[in-house]
Design brief:
Keywords: Oxidoreductase. By secondary structure, the protein is α/β, with parallel strands linked by helices. Helices cover 37% and strands 12% of the residues. The strands form two sheets. The chain has an eight-stranded parallel β-sheet with strand order 3-4-5-6-7-8-9-10. Helix 3 links the parallel strand 5 and strand 6. The two termini are 31 Å apart.
């Protein structure tokens, strides 16, 4: 698999990683054996970047990744985790004492002394402008608690504020064929600063897999049921904030662009990989077959249909989402 790096991140990672939200919660139940099979299948396919968070299953995802690390024993693997979503989302909760406690818990869950990368997990917007927050993160690097830190953001303005901080190594942001705004300013700014871009929700919560229909039903414990309108967290995290029926229409128009021998999901992942400035894209997977198929998207040739993807976005999606995030 192609490896990419970014100056501030200080390490190379496979261009397709694995998002581990599904292994914790909010996507329907994934049992432990299946979760470990997903992790090992991804690694066997060349994945070296695994993204989790302390809030996914209240630590379950981190613990599973920690077990995988012990079974794997592979020094080339990078694990990124996130912190901050297990408390009320007010800036007052983003304190030094809380950061140290969250860090201790994640290190215990993962079974490591030093976290490869810790990311603020879509905190309230004022947090990105807090000198105290970033002074504490710098302190954690100096103490060897974390090797590097970054941020996960909802909006492009949050991303740009974070990139301006000299210690920020990575920005995780939603980027897919139904969410093009980061291409305008965020990716060029990150490339200029040497900041890694971690592209999340690349399949728009599965919409861009091409498998869903208007009558597809999602379980009650799946965020695609309970967060359609942002009831639990930012609505942009579910189907990229695109109304489900509009997303289905967009996908129908994109189907004809999929290269022969590739799946719709692989096409969507390759589209992200093609974007200048992207370091790693982190699709999720619920079984080993999905993990292997996602990884194989790295083997596709660069796409020649970017203008046609943009045309679909401009007509159907831009009016609904472009100015929101």
């Amino acid at each position: 698999m192609e490896n990419r790096d970014a100056r501030r991140l200080g390490r190379q990672v496979g261009v397709i990683g694995l998002g581990c939200w599904q292994l914790g919660a909010d996507w329907g139940r994934v049992d432990e054996a299946d979760a470990l099979a997903v992790l090992h299948a991804a690694a066997d396919s060349g994945v070296t970047f695994f993204d989790t968070a302390d809030v996914y299953g209240d630590g379950r995802s981190e613990q599973l990744v920690g077990r995988f690390l012990r079974e794997r024993g592979d020094a080339a693997i990078t694990v990124a985790t996130k912190m901050g979503r297990r408390v009320g989302q007010t800036p007052a909760n983003y304190t030094r004492d809380n950061f140290l406690a969250w860090n201790d818990r994640s290190r215990a869950n993962l079974g490591v002394d030093t976290l490869d990368l810790v990311q603020l997990h879509c905190p309230p917007t004022p947090v990105y402008s807090s000198d105290e927050v970033f002074d504490t993160l710098d302190e954690m690097v100096e103490a060897g608690r974390v090797a590097a830190y970054g941020v996960s953001v909802e909006t492009t303005e949050e991303a740009l504020t974070a990139i301006a901080r000299p210690g920020v190594a990575s920005v995780q942001i939603i980027l897919n064929a139904l969410r093009l705004k980061p291409l305008e300013r965020v990716l060029p700014a990150a490339a200029d600063a040497g900041v890694a871009i971690v592209a999340r929700v690349p399949l728009a919560s599965g919409l861009l897999s091409g498998k869903y229909r208007r009558d597809t039903a999602f379980g009650a414990d799946d965020h695609r049921s309970f967060n359609r309108n942002g009831e639990a967290f930012d609505v942009g995290e579910t189907f990229s904030g695109v109304p489900y029926e509009v997303g289905l229409e967009a996908v129908d128009r994109l189907r004809g662009l999929v290269p022969e021998g590739a799946t719709m999901a692989q096409f969507a992942l390759r589209w992200v990989v093609d974007q200048p400035g992207v370091t790693v894209v982190i699709p999720g997977a619920r079984n080993a077959e999905q993990a292997r198929a996602n990884s194989a998207a790295a083997d596709l040739a660069p796409l020649t249909s970017h203008d046609r993807v943009r045309a679909v976005y401009d007509e159907l999606v831009r009016p609904l989402v472009h100015d929101r995030w």
